[in-house]
Amino acid sequence: MEVLGDKDFQDEALLRPVGHLGKGFLLTVTILLGVVLWGIYAYSFQVRHGLGVTGLDRPVYWGFYITNFVFFIGISHAGTLISAILRLCQAEWRRSITRAAEVITVVVLFIGAANILLDLGRPDRALFVIFHGNLTSPLLWDVVSISTYLTGSTIYLYLPLIPDIAILRDRKARPQFLYRILSLGFTGTEKEKKRLHIAISIMAVIVIPIAISVHTVVSWVFAMTIQPMWHSTIFGPYFVVGAIFSGIAALILAMAIIRRAYHLQEYLKEIHFNNLGTLLLVMALLWFYFTFAEYLTTFYGGEPDEMAVFFAKVRGPYAPYFWAMVVTNFVIQFSILCNRKTRTVAGTVIASSSVIVGMWLERFTIVVPTLVNPRIPFPRGTYFPSWIEVSLMAASFAMFILLYMGFSKLFPIVSVWEMKEGREVSVAETAERVRTYLPGESEA
Amino acid sequence: MKRRDFLKLSGGATAGAVLAGLGFQNLLVHALPTGTEDSGTGVPGVPSWANTICQQCPGGCGVRVKLVDGRAINISGNPLYPINREGVCPKGISGLQALYDPDRIKGPLKRVGERGSGKWQQITWEEAVATVASELKALRQKGEPQSAVFVTGQVRGLMVDLFSRFALTYGTPNHIRHTSGIDGSALPSYLLQGVRQQIAYDLENASYILSFGSSFLEAGWSPVRQIRAYGILRQGKAGSRAKIVQIEPRLSMTAAKADEWVAINPGTDGALALGIARVILDERLYNESFLSQHTVGLEDWTDSSGQKHTGFKALVQQNYAVDRVAEITGVPVETIIRIAREFARNRPAIAMAEQEVAMHTAGLYARMAVHCLNALVGSIDTPGGTVLSMEVPLEPLPHVDKDAIAQRGLSFPRLDRAGSTEFPLAESAYEFLPEALATGKPYKAKALFLYYSNPLHSLADSARVRKALESVPLIVSFSPFPDDSTNIADLILPDHTYLERWQDDPMLPVTPHSVFGVRKPVVKPLFNTMHTGDFLIKLAQASGGSVAQAFPWKDFPAVIQHRVQGLFKARRGTIVQTEGEDAWAQQLAERGVWSPSYASFEEFWKQLVEKGGWWDPSYRFGEWSRVFRTPSGKFEFFSQILRERLVSLSGNQGLEALLKKARVEARGDLVFLPHFEPERFVGDEKSYPFHLNPYKLMAHGSNQPFLLEILGPQLNTRWDTWAELHPEEAKKLGVKDGDSIWLESPLGKIQTRAKLYVGTMPRVVNIPFGLGHEAGGRWAQGIGVNPNRIMSGVEFDRLAGFPALFATRIKISKA
Amino acid sequence: MARWGMVIDLDKCTGCQACVVACKVENNVPVVNAEEAAKGREMLWIRVMPTVEGEYPRIKMRFMPVLCQHCDHPPSTKVCPVGATYKNPEGIVAQIYPRCIGCRYCMNACPYTIKYFNWFRPQREEIQQNYLNPEVSLRPKGVVEKCTFCHHRLIKAREQAAVEKRSLREGDFTPACVESCPARAMYFGDLDDPTSTVSKLSKSSRAFRLLEELGTEPKVIYLTEGEWHGSVGR
Ligand SMILES: Nc1nc2c(c(=O)[nH]1)N[C@H]1C(S)=C(S)[C@@H](COP(=O)(O)OP(=O)(O)OC[C@H]3O[C@@H](n4cnc5c(=O)[nH]c(N)nc54)[C@H](O)[C@@H]3O)O[C@H]1N2
Ligand SMILES: Nc1nc2c(c(=O)[nH]1)N[C@H]1C(S)=C(S)[C@@H](COP(=O)(O)OP(=O)(O)OC[C@H]3O[C@@H](n4cnc5c(=O)[nH]c(N)nc54)[C@H](O)[C@@H]3O)O[C@H]1N2
Ligand code: SF4
Ligand code: SF4
Ligand code: SF4
Ligand code: SF4
Ligand code: SF4
Ligand SMILES: [Mo]
């Protein structure tokens, strides 16, 4: 590709992290691997003895694993969905962030799906879902939509990656064979580029409904039952909004870390954080709106079984979680992100960290309090995770970071060719486009 | 069990094994231990059923044991058996966990370590017989056979008879039975009707049941029969639904299922009964004709010497004004009046009081007072009222001769003082035994035999009981289970469990009809155990002398066969059969036709064993000479029998001295009339503000996990003891539901979990009995607490020998 | 085809829990230990649920045995991803243990909270294996179980009827809990047969079903407690 021998190539910084394993990196990897290995031990312990080693009981049959499942699948909306929307809207500031976003999706989907496996009493029978799939089960819909999403997102990640892989191939980066195979012989001809653009656009259109379906279906796992405060018609959009919300937060955090660790301040600028911060604020407002609507209707209805769950959340044993959620997901967002002055890198990072916590709490307060307060008042349960669940949650996060870091060492985490394209083509193109928006200009 | 051990147990499979295979390997039961007996069909894997009698409690239900390859796999009710007709209770089913208890004693053991150290040596049964025989011989040679003590617990029939016979011919007056049980229950009818037999209630046909404390849906003499009767009173008969009023300090299961719960201050039932009597008398709601024809002592009367006596009516009218009764009992005046009216107007009505009314310092008078209510409304020997069960016509055992040593031994006073001036009316005073053993007065016990009895756990003031037991040089336990007392025995001679042995079961006289069940081995004994009956026969024969002569049988079943000849010869009754067949037989009987299903004794025996028992479905009401055997031949409000007994016992000592000793407060005529005396509590009200109310749960049985798992349905409690507090009182004490608390009496303190329960009287703390064993097996040991550790064993109803189990006061503190 | 159902007369039921233990024994339902029970992990396919109303001393406490309601519209079966629980043609909601993946979704979807999970491998002392019922399969750890309406008894009864060349009669098939009940508070039979006891009782004015408003159409029907109509003490 033209990068080679391109005298004007300005994006060397983007390629530098690839293949370069620094001390800090290795140390981090070691620690994370340790956590993952501990997780594997914890899981083997669980498999050996049974799910009884968790803090689950009757009637709290679902706990951390399912919370994590919903949470991670939510995070996955960061990537593909946001990137696709930005692409379709031709938001130029997207160029340096789409890749980082898309990777999150692919990696985190694995982690999310794995948490379902962790939750199974009989993981050895997991494939029964395929052999004996029962179409009326929302869980089966999940399996279908998540695997579709995973496929779609992987393709969607892969397509824009091809030119960069070609660059690495041409640079004789190692492992050569990998880059050779994955680059599919891409050389960067205009025809190829055009095709690539078309493919990317098509995928962008396709993944949006898939992404929305995924989290809708995840919500239906709960909403399709008739359990108090699960059986809700707005759960689909509510979950999608929450997913995008947490996804953006995850993206902001990832960007901040990449920017710091790989010295990419030039690429991931304040403006990116500012823009995403604004988006985060919008989502915070939307999230609040849904939450408010959901809880108000429940409260107004006053149905006793629903109220038991409602009160467990707002003033019962789950009140600390619930109110922490309100603070982290709304109060903090509102106070930081409304103000341009605080919508800085640091500000958005704080806000995002808070959303990550908040959205996890949201998932938790959806899953557990309903189970604790079943319609038949006996028994009333309690739930506190065991060390196994805590370990596996830590391992899930560690695994996610590990995979993400691994990716960034194999491929440029900021799209090289798109940056280049932006610089070379889009500036002019955008200027042109802006002109067409103005009065007196003919539509081109 | 520690969690780790549990995991070890439960996690036999490795991760690999789980991931491999799809779990099918776990699906079928393979390689089960093969059965010990080829009972049943004999076809492998094909189930068969065998009838026998349950013995998880005194209830006497007929059960059907399901067998596969000689293993007992299930227990259900015998549909033919008249006590329960197919129903069972959870304990009955859990009998499987008694039979297949992993902690059973597997053969005769001799202690080698310290007492209670758990170090045992296996011995053979020959050695066992020889050892005990030589110990007993030695006592006889020393001329002190009276120092051998035999305790038999909640069993009946031949085993008790054989122990009595052994004691009698051996020469000891000390065959001690449970007063807390049947003996005591027979006293009200003895004193008022002259028949020393428990009162039976025709519950099934009653319209109104006034139950004083008898928590008959959870415990009581025959729980399944009582629950079955309850079912009949509830929608079982078209157009009628009896009212049940449960009077007790705790909202028990029974109180919950009753139409009305009346909370009463503990130990004040006598006053309430008399208050109700007052209303009935004042408002003339009584059964005029019954009172005039069949009772004496209601009105004031003059005896043959011209002395004037107070009648029951005057007594009640002088002393039991309703407002005073309300004050004593805590039951509102309106309630007393209303209940009295309902009771008298909805006949047939039953007033019943069993042990919990008795187990107070003036319990006997209270029970008499309650029974007088039955007389007032004419519920004596009427359908739907109280009756006296027909006798089971068993063949008597042959006469015994006592040799000189035996006669000398028998002339000693009983160690428990039953029947003496200390416990004038008691036949046994089991609860006094610890005192007697500890003091060694009037003589020391040298050998103690425990059959179906676990005093270390079940007698009050555990520390004192332990001391008492330790003073006995030889303790022999026949228990198949390593219970608390067996654990500190010197010899354990394990009996078969009830599913492995032959035994007769003449039903307690608590139903109108006479019922006799046969318990048979449904599985072969699993271990090297021996029927205690067989052991007694062997022991007797090894002992020689008059003892050997009294036991001429080859084994225990031979004695049963001897006894049931009586049933065969009685020319009445029938082998148990379906309800339809019973109805038909009943019709025939009314026409004077008796058509038995058997022609010979062999046939009779075969059917008896196969079907599970014999019964006589007929009851003849109005045989007044049978139900009133008092001097007057009537129901005596003023008990002549009581007077005669007390006067003759007091002898030249004088009645006053006896009454003082018996701690009866009343004087004059009042002594012989039912009346109320306040409870003598242990622990003063100021320092110990709460009253301890221990009660029995349906799921009583401590090494049987099935029962531990369903322990307390009212508060959803299981696998532990708890104490019930009134929520307001708990609040005052700063105690929250589930908090750990101390219950402290003057005797000591125990720790348990608090449960806040609105069904508790404010000044009462309820605690279930049953857990807190020091031994007894892997499940029994180390869970819960035993209220007996803080209960006092010093107070009694001295007249009757009832222990005042409900007389302890306690205080509560947070732990 | 029969539509099996149960009627429980709450007026008669004393909460004795014979049914609870009868079911455990009949169906090889594992027993847990104290520590597990403290977490609510005890397994009782049928359990007695107490409720308390009122204030001291005017308290009404009720007991209600609750088992799988064998809903005609079972929310639990629809959600199973592998079809390990389903409603059979006779209306019995069944479990296929070798199929279950242990996701516990059905348990969460059941509004009656009446399914049980094998948190561990069932723990049984060797001697206790003697009383295992060979007619009922044992469940491994990690799968869900619940009341089957004693389906194995139905199979046996049907075989027996076939041998005797007749159709199934009322009383041929009685679940273990019904059989044990000392108060005779439980009835079982074909709800579609207008002559059966259960179908007659189900039309009683005392009849109601648990959480009826959810539309689950339970086939366990309860009869409310009655009232006393005697001569009052006025
Ligand atoms: N399931 C089961 N059945 C049993 C037994 C068992 O352990 N379990 N044991 C058998 C034996 S040996 C016996 S002796 C019988 C005993 O059978 P019951 O006598 O029926 O049983 P308890 O539990 O001893 O009775 C205690 C009840 O009396 C109440 N009570 C306490 N003090 C007073 C009082 O002062 N006045 C009144 N009115 N009530 C009071 C308590 O609240 C409690 O409900 O049961 C027999 N049957
Ligand atoms: N606090 C308190 N104390 C009480 C009572 C109470 O309600 N509260 N109740 C009182 C009453 S009413 C009674 S009747 C007594 C009961 O007290 P006990 O008569 O001591 O009865 P259990 O504690 O049941 O002990 C009976 C023992 O018999 C043994 N056993 C079981 N099966 C067999 C067998 O097949 N053969 C032989 N040989 N032995 C066997 C068992 O080891 C068991 O420990 O407790 C009294 N003590
Ligand atoms: S009431 Fe007693 S005798 Fe009857 S089944 Fe229950 S434990 Fe056995
Ligand atoms: S066995 Fe009968 S009386 Fe006992 S709890 Fe069950 S349904 Fe109620
Ligand atoms: S009660 Fe629950 S488990 Fe049973 S059929 Fe209904 S929803 Fe399913
Ligand atoms: S736990 Fe088993 S039966 Fe229940 S939904 Fe999951 S796979 Fe189906
Ligand atoms: S019907 Fe059978 S499986 Fe269901 S609760 Fe009753 S005994 Fe248990
Ligand atoms: Mo007793």
**Tally of strands of chain C:** 10
Count of beta strands of chain B: 32
Global Rg of chain B: 27 Å
Oligomeric category: heterotrimer
Number of helices of chain B: 31
Question: Could you describe the 3D structure shown?
Answer:
The complex is a heterotrimer of chains A (444), B (815) and C (234). Chain A has helices spanning 12-15, 23-49, 64-75, 79-88, 98-119, 128-131, 138-158, 162-170, 176-182, 190-223, 235-261, 270-301, 304-314, 319-337, 345-372, 387-410, 416-437. With 444 residues, chain A is mostly helical. In chain A, α13 (304-314) crosses α15. Chain B has 815 residues and is α/β, with parallel strands linked by helices. Chain B has a seven-stranded mixed β-sheet with strand order 5-4-19-18-17-6-7. A six-stranded mixed β-sheet of chain B has the order 26-28-27-32-25-29. Chain B has a four-stranded parallel β-sheet with strand order 11-10-9-15. The longest helix of chain B has 17 residues, at 125-141. Chain C has 234 residues and is of the alpha+beta class. In chain C, 20% of the residues lie in helices and 19% in strands. Chain C has helices spanning 18-26, 34-38, 75-78, 105-109, 151-163, 176-180, 197-201, and strands spanning 4-9, 47-55, 58-66, 85-87, 93-95, 116-117, 144-145, 186-190, 207-208, 220-223. In chain C, β4 (85-87) and β5 form a beta hairpin. At the B-C interface, α1, β3, α3, α8 and α9 of B face α1, α2, β2, β3 and α6 of C. Bound molecules: ligand MGD (2 copies), iron/sulfur cluster (SF4) (5 copies) and molybdenum atom (MO). One iron/sulfur cluster binds next to α4 of chain C.
Task: Tell me the layout of helices and strands.
The complex is a heterotrimer of chains A (444), B (815) and C (234).
Chain A: H1 12-15, H2 23-49, H3 64-75, H4 79-88, H5 98-119, H6 128-131, H7 138-158, H8 162-170, H9 176-182, H10 190-223, H11 235-261, H12 270-301, H13 304-314, H14 319-337, H15 345-372, H16 387-410, H17 416-437
Helix pairs in contact in A: 2-16, 3-5, 3-11, 3-15, 4-5, 4-10, 5-7, 5-16, 7-10, 8-9, 10-11, 11-12, 11-15, 12-14, 12-15, 13-14, 13-15, 14-15
Chain B: H1 3-10, H2 15-19, E1 48-53, E2 62-68, E3 71-77, H3 90-99, E4 109-111, E5 120-122, H4 125-141, E6 148-152, H5 158-170, E7 175-176, H6 179-185, H7 187-193, E8 200-201, E9 208-212, H8 223-236, E10 243-247, H9 253-257, E11 260-262, H10 269-282, H11 288-294, E12 295-296, E13 301-302, E14 308-309, H12 312-319, H13 322-329, H14 333-345, E15 349-353, H15 355-358, H16 363-376, E16 386-387, H17 404-410, H18 433-439, E17 447-451, H19 455-458, H20 462-470, E18 474-477, H21 484-487, E19 491-492, E20 503-506, E21 514-519, H22 532-543, H23 545-550, H24 556-569, E22 574-575, H25 579-590, H26 601-611, E23 613-616, H27 624-627, E24 635-636, H28 640-650, H29 655-661, E25 690-696, H30 705-709, E26 722-725, H31 727-733, E27 740-745, E28 748-756, E29 764-769, E30 796-797, E31 802-803, E32 809-814
Parallel strand pairs in B: 6-7, 6-17, 9-10, 9-15, 10-11, 12-24, 17-18, 18-19, 25-29, 26-28
Antiparallel strand pairs in B: 1-2, 2-3, 4-5, 4-19, 8-16, 13-14, 20-21, 21-23, 22-23, 25-32, 27-28, 27-32, 30-31
Chain C: E1 4-9, H1 18-26, H2 34-38, E2 47-55, E3 58-66, H3 75-78, E4 85-87, E5 93-95, H4 105-109, E6 116-117, E7 144-145, H5 151-163, H6 176-180, E8 186-190, H7 197-201, E9 207-208, E10 220-223
Parallel strand pairs in C: 1-10
Antiparallel strand pairs in C: 1-8, 2-3, 4-5, 6-7, 9-10
One ligand MGD is lined by residues 57-58, 91, 154, 180-181, 212-215, 218-221, 223, 247-250, 252, 264, 266-267, 269, 354-357, 693, 695-696, 698, 700, 806 of chain B.
